[in-house]
Amino acid sequence: MPSPPLPPVENSAAAWLALVPAIAVILLYWSAFPASFQFDDWNVIVNDPRVHSLAAWWESMPGIRPLLKFSYALNFQASDTAVGFRVVNVLIHALNATLVFWLLRVRGTRAGLVVAQASQVALLAALLFALHPVQTEAVTYISGRSSSLAAAFCLVSLFCWVRSEESRYATAWLIACCAGFAAAVATKETALVLPLALWVYSADRPVRATLRRLMPVLLLTALMLILALSLPRYRYLLEVSLDTRSLVANLLTQSRALVYLAGQLVRLGNGNADPQLPVIDSIDALSVLLGIFWLTLLVGVMLRLRTAPVGAFAVLWFLLWLAPTNSVLPRLDVANDRQLYLALIGPVWWVSLRLLSLSRASRSMRYGVAVLLLSLLSIATVQRNRIYATEITFWQDTATRNPGSARAANNLGMAYAIDCRFDAAAAEFERSIELDSADYRARINLHLLSQGKLPGAERCDVSEEEAKISTASMTEGNPAGRVTRGGGIAFLQPSLTPCSPVEMLFSGFGIASRGRSKGSEQ
After folding, report:
1. CA 96 from chain center: how many Å?
2. Spatial separation of the C-alpha atoms in residues 40 and 79, rounded to whole Å
């Protein structure tokens, strides 16, 4: 049975509709532009000289994520302020929202929707994708660009893939698809699952024809894997990943992490920059049952991909884009919101179709519910963006949501110290030590603070006596030998190599033992 024709890209109405999500993104994120650098931003951008100019970037090559670092170097050379970086992030998100509209509009017609209905569903889905607060970690959080920029190249590649199915210039479009794929992988390695995404998108097409068209993409995948494994840095990172925890323990852990990530789609006020999710080291009934559930769900939707094109696509797309970070290979951080960036597309498409297809509700009621939902998402996103205003607001929120996190307490202490609030800083460093007595970072920071030598706090215009808080009260339970042997001077060196094995192992601190970087993912 022949497939329905593609909606014309040149259609003026569709073109105007495609701009709506982009405009919505810019308006919604406008207030977030003045926010400060946060968390990984300091290690991977502000204090990494390799991304401070194009010449420095070129000298640092070959290296990991070259295209991401190239974007940082371009950004830094144009403007080294957080505003400049965040403007680019927002524009990337706006582009992605537009591409999501077009791709879902096409997919909707191929799933049997009439063009008008497919356009309405795609528009609502693109707006849900654009305005959902879970996306702030890939947009407002500058280092989250690794997710949004890689997604942009993936969506461009998918766009070219779709065009290659119907165009007279199929070969040219397929070459462009491969180029977009290569760019996505050069931005973030998780894009290696794109060939599977292309297959899922084209599940309505003849299998043999799709596999034949996929061959150059699959060959490119193999080539990029070989190239990555030829680089010592990638091999070392793989070793560190496999040493983090066993594969069985990681599968058990991720069976629960997937529940958390799925819940983030509906918990609009639960944004968490550093969620403390449990690591499951031994087999337990709940984790096994959840693992069986996810596996059964995966097999079920694969079998129904043709008979239930929207629902099966939504679930399979969601699981597919979480697979690189939340399945087999262990990560120090069990889960983060930015991993949902592309995965969100499937669920929002399904929700949009269900909402706009309610037969028992009037048209005005359906649109009213849609407007209400978009309003709730926008409010939640604005509230979440306010958290990024300063380092203090960022870490106060993170510490409140994770009261047992020594990393959050240490980083909040550093934020207080930089703001010359020494008593509050000391209290947070001490709380971090209480939460994790084996973690020396807060001890080093506390000792340096007691000496008035904590890097970052030198600018405080106070007297020497005011800067030196009572050493006795601040260093209680903090043996001086431990601090000295811990290498206090060494921690004053420039920031660790972004995403390096050392940074991954010592996840949670950056320059001057500030506790900035998570390191497991930029």
Report:
1. 14
2. 18
